[in-house]
Amino acid sequence: MTRLLNEYKDFLEVGLIARRGSAFLKRQKGQLKLDNSVLEEFLVELVQPAILDGLPDFPLSVGPTTAFMSLSFAPPALRALNDAPIVALKVKDQDFIIGKEIHYRFSPDPDFTPDKTASGSLSLAVLAAECKVNLDKTMFQEAAGTAARLKQGCPYSQYYILNEYLDMEPEDCRLTAIDNVFLLRHAKRLPFEKRSVYEELRRQHEQSPIDAEVVWLFVQKIQAFISAAWYDPARALQRGTFV
Questions:
Q1: Where are the beta strands (DSSP E) in 22-138?
Q2: Within the chain, which residues score under 50 in pLDDT?
């Protein structure tokens, strides 16, 4: 699968965009999501029984999703506590998640009468990944903030970054809420003056293809996560610890 991914990205990014693309296309390819969506689509193909053991028999939310971050209530006054609750739901677009759509109803009325009930749904991400072509310091810090907020909404969740080219010095992500960063090409970003040069980009793709071993490391992280018991209080006395 990784070989096919490399072939497709070489065709799209080198053969089409770098070699034959217009100046506008080369400048705006990130905003148009021409190259940075390829990895998102590839990750979806990893979540299947032929690759992962123990997938549940119910439908999962897999792929790019607007995922749940936090939920709060915002009553405008004391007298409003007997009305349908005002639910403030914070969400954020995620490049890739594994999770489930959750439906909810809140009401001060135990019979959930329609005029006193707030209802809706949210996508709960238990595993999320940010996909970056180039990862710089600002992007890393923003991802760290996203990871922290995601784990406030679901403490058992995991958050990863997968990037192709590094545009910063590596940092110890254990000091953040990011679980790990996967450097798919083992490569740094080209200098500014070389980024739009066809021969330079072609050479970089040839010398630093996406590494199947790094992709497999990510697959192993997913496998360990879906196979684990995230929390089992009934076994606390056997473990000798709460967690």
A1: 61-73, 87-106, 118-135
A2: none
